Every structure is written in structure tokens, then in C-alpha cells.
Amino acid sequence: MNIDNKEILDNILETLRSDPKLSSYVKRISHGDMSVSRKIFPFIDVGNFHISQDKATTGSVVLTYMIEIIAGTKSLAPGVAREGAECGVVGIVELCDDICDALRGRAFGRCFEPAQIASADPNHTGSDDETTRIGLVVITCRLRAPL
Amino acid sequence: MGTFSGKEIAEKVLSCLKADAALSGYVKKFSAGGIDAARNIFPFVSVSAIENEAEALTIGKAGQMRNDCAIRIYGGTFHTLPETAHAGDEKSGAKGILQLNADILNAVVMNDFGGAFEAPVKLLNSSTAHKSGSGGRSWACEVSLSGMTATDKQSA
Q: Whole-prediction pTM value?
């Protein structure tokens, strides 16, 4: 088998970092850092990988990847972390949309079909006073791993 | 029952993981048992939770039984830099949970573990997650496999 999760991660990070819209306002695009207290907002972090076996032939195994990407925004003004503001501050709803736009239809690593958006949830979590909003985007892609 | 006991299957899976060239190059501890992080040396691999399931393949008594066995393999990494614990660091050679997870999958998927299973096992699920409260400095992965161990006759 020749499975390489890092290659897929690197491709996703490269795609997010090279997206002109995201790079214009997202302050940090990282992976594996799950501590919100250390973040510089707005941020994107590529986190959990879930893999399942789809089908197997004598020569290869098809694996389905579900990759979780969290994003966060922060503003002390009421509702701005979620909806954004006309002055150009981007909220979590727009940030999740932009992540989806950047990743949808892209092929990562040796995946044989374009990535799909499994879910985009701008209300994943956040602080009680709504100054911080965390969204979750889940993408799926399929990889054929030769035996 | 199948040809091998649950303990023997766990030992065969563990032997397969220990013999893997990629894993043995950096994994500090291979064990059978739980995922108690307090006692582990990172990176670690642990084989745990052998679950057996038997299903009658015929309606009548004394027909054939199908015995399935599910195994869970856990892996863990730790680093003070969350990004290194997650995806490793090429300069220092440190491995993250994504590499450990991929190396475990490369070693076990479509493997019959020296005849412990009648056919190559199927990957049910593989997940990575950070340890709650660690902020991403401690990551774990779980690989669940299932396969048929034997068919035999039910007792009449």
C-alpha cells in the first residue's frame, strides 16, 4: 500500500494559501493547531482526517477521505463575527463559503476525483457572547491506493 | 470458533506492525492493550479491543457459522508544536499523526496477518483526533479493521 496523508494535507494547504480571496483577509492558515486561544483571527486550520475503505480490487483499494477544516472569526461588535460588516470585516458565514469555493472541485494529491463538500457549518461552535465564531467545513475525496 | 483466539490475533497484528519497516523506524512503543496516554511513550502503537461476532449462515441447526473479528489499532504522537504533532517535521524527521496513521494503514489494510483471517481484512474506519485539552500537542488515531476468521459448524 502507498497511502500518504501528508501529500493530501500539503495540497489542501497550498490551495487555501494560494486562493486570492482567502489570502486577502485570512491571517493564518495552519494545520493541527486546535487551540483557539492561540489563534490570530480570522484563521483556517486543517485538522482531523477520517478514512474508510470504499472498495477493493486485486490491484488496489479505494479509500474515501473526509477531512475537517475549522475556521474562526472574532469581533467585539455584536453579530459581526457571524455575519461580517459592510466595512469589509468578514464573518464566519462568508469565510466558510470562501473555503468551499477554494476547495470545491479541486483534486488533491493522488485523488482520482475532485473534492466535494460534505458539509459547511458556520455555527459549529463559538463563545457564549458571540464574539468568536468557529465554523467547520468537511470535504471528501477519494484515493486509489495500489496494493 | 475460529482457528485463532482473540489474543493470538492481537499478537499476530502486533507482530505485523512491529515488523513494518516504516513503523519500526520511529515508533517508540508497541503494545497490546489500551490507549492510556499517561503510560505511553510517544509515538506509540497499541492493538486493542478484539471483538468477535458469530453469525449463523443457515436457518437450521448444525449449519455453518461465520466468525468475524474486529480489531482496533491506536496510535499516538506528541510534540510541543501542534503542527509537528499533526503532520511531522521534515527537518528534524519527527513524525506526526498523519504519517503514523498512513504507515499503520500501509501495514494492515488488505493484510490477512499470517493466516489469522481467511481473507484480507477490510478497513472499517480510520480517524485522527487531538486529545481534548491538549490544544493539538497530543494527537491520536484509531484504525478499525474487520475480517472473517473462520466458518465452522454450529453445535447441534
A: 0.91
